[in-house]
Amino acid sequence: MRKTEVSDNELITQFLRGNENGLEELITRHQRKVFTSILLLVKDKELAEDLFQETFIKVINTLRSGNYHEEGKFLPWVIRIGHNLVIDYFRKQKRMPMVRDTEEFSVMDSLKLTDENIEDKMITNQIHVEIRQLIEHLPLDQREVVIMRHYADMSFKDIAESTNVSINTSLGRMRYALINLRKLIQEKQLVLVK
Amino acid sequence: MSKTSTIEKLVLYLFNETAMTDSVLIQREIDNDDEVEMEFTNIKRAFRFVDRALVDPSPSSVSNILKYAARTAEKAN
Predict the structure, then answer these.
(1) Residue ranges of the domains in chain B?
(2) Separation CA A37–CA A122 (nearest Å)
């Protein structure tokens, strides 16, 4: 019989009652989406690690202060915190990350990921790297909407409010993101092996 | 329905953001129009690629967070 998953709210309650396993489970459950959301915005692994930690420190402090009122929407809330920290970081730096055309990316251009001689694991890892690079090449506003809708499970209405644009603009950004992603996937001849 | 609005409607449908009546109409279009069906398949495929971009933070980052929580627990209680 399938074990029933403890809800995020129950884990939060456990944590607030002093059981730190509740927090650990919350992090384990959501770390990939939160971390990837940050990484795709800042395009720098070390910086993403720092902002990921800051995000959860803010989460811990907010939970303990009793100011968490997002029942049932823990992940979108955490991703929004991470997103705001990214914006703050770049505001302090007085710059936003630009689309980069790195050497690394050019090297990848010639890589054929379907080569049968490469081990499966290597192929999978390379695909992960390449896909992240493809998403990182999207303009920031398109990256944001993909992250918020697909990873954070925010509705287009919530995304529109969060980014101060209309729902139609959010939808339009998603449309361009999909068109651009498709183009990039075709150019790179990427295929899903699994 | 123009090409542009097709993508947007299909995205809304994929994420369950369409009204019940619209959902029925969109699903009917997917079933009966090869181009729309192909578009829907391509959108789903693109999001599968996006899922492949997911990556874990380093164990030390997670450990630092848990250490912070433990260190500050006393003050919080």
Answers:
(1) 3-76
(2) 23
